[in-house]
Design a protein that fits this description.
Radius of gyration: 17 Å
Number of strands: 11
Largest sheet: 6 strands, antiparallel
Distance between the termini: 6 Å
Strand content: 25-35%
CATH superfamily: PPM-type phosphatase domain
Order of helices and strands: EEEHHEEEEEHHEEHHHE
Bound molecules: calcium ion
CATH class: Alpha Beta
CATH architecture: 4-Layer Sandwich
Shape: globular
Number of domains: 1
CATH topology: Phosphatase 2c, domain 1
Low-confidence stretches: none
C-alpha cells in the first residue's frame, strides 16, 4: 500500500511557479523544476510532466530503469522541439526526478538538482546526485561543504532536460522494505530547510499531509524559490 502526499507552491518571492509535479498513473511520481526566464521555465516543466503523464496513460512499457530513462528522453524531445518552434524560448529546460514503485522494488531516473531521498529506519539518504557545478567541485575536493553552501554559482546546472537534443540520464534501482519513505523535492525546499527539519516532518506521527507541511516549513524559512514536494510511504499489504 502507498500513502502519498503532494504539494507545490510559488513561494513568497517569485511571481510564477516554474515547478511542476505529477502523481501519475502506475505509481510514477515526478518533480520538475523549470528554468529559462520569463514564462519559459514554467512551460518547460509543464511540458515535461504532461508528456510523462500522456506516455504513462497511453503506453504499456516496463517502468524499470530503461523505461524511466525513456520517459526523460521523450520529455527532452518535447521541450527541445517546442524551443525549435518558438526560438524566443531558447535555452528553456527543466530538472526531472522520477520515482516508480513496484512490488519489492523502486526505480528512479534523474537529471538536474531536484532530489530524491529515502528515509529508512531513521536514516535520511539522498539517492540522487545534484548535477551542479558546485556539486562537482565538492565531489573532486576543490571546495569544502561550507564553501559550497555560499558559492556564487550554487545554482548553475551542468545538466538539464530540454536544452540539448540529447540528455544524459542517471537511473537506479533500490530494493523496497516495509516502511520505506521517499521524498522527491525541488531545490526550493532543500535550500531553505535543513535536512534534520525535513526528517522531523517525515517522521512526525501526527502529520496527515507531510508534503504540505514541508512546503509550509520552506515558506516559514523565507520561501525564496518555488517549493515542491511529493512524499511516498510504502507499506507491505
Ligand atoms: Ca528551483
Amino acid at each position: 500500500m502507498l500513502k502519498v502526499s503532494q504539494a507545490t507552491d510559488v513561494g513568497l518571492v517569485r511571481e510564477l511557479n516554474e515547478d511542476s509535479i505529477l502523481v501519475g498513473p502506475k505509481n510514477v511520481f515526478v518533480v520538475a523544476d523549470g528554468m529559462g526566464g520569463h514564462v519559459a521555465g514554467e512551460i518547460a516543466s509543464h511540458i515535461f510532466t504532461a508528456t510523462a503523464e500522456s506516455k504513462l496513460s497511453s503506453e504499456d512499457t516496463a517502468l524499470d530503469q530503461d523505461g524511466l530513462r525513456y520517459l526523460v528522453i521523450d520529455g527532452n524531445k518535447a521541450i527541445f522541439e517546442c524551443t525549435r518552434e518558438n526560438p524566443e524560448k531558447s535555452g528553456m529546460g527543466t530538472t526531472a526526478t522520477i520515482l516508480h514503485l513496484e512490488e519489492g522494488a523502486a526505480f528512479w531516473a534523474h537529471v538536474g538538482d531536484s532530489r530524491l531521498y529515502r528515509l529508512r529506519k531513521g536514516e535520511l539518504k539522498q539517492i540522487t546526485s545534484d548535477h551542479t557545478y558546485v556539486a562537482e567541485l565538492l565531489a573532486n575536493g576543490s571546495i569544502s561543504p561550507d564553501e559550497a553552501e555560499d558559492h556564487p554559482n550554487k545554482h548553475m546546472l551542468l545538466r538539464a532536460v530540454g536544452v540539448d537534443p540529447v540528455v544524459k540520464v542517471d537511473t537506479g534501482e533500490l530494493p523496497l522494505e516495509n516502511g520505506d519513505m521517499f521524498l522527491l523535492c525541488s531545490d526550493g525546499l532543500t535550500n531553505m530547510v535543513t535536512l534534520s527539519a525535513i526528517q522531523g516532518i517525515l517522521e512526525a506521527e501526527e502529520c496527515p499531509d507531510k508534503a504540505e507541511a514541508l512546503v509550509e516549513l520552506a515558506k516559514d524559512s523565507g520561501g525564496l524559490d518555488n517549493i515542491s514536494a511529493i512524499v511516498v510511504e510504502y507499506y507491505e499489504e
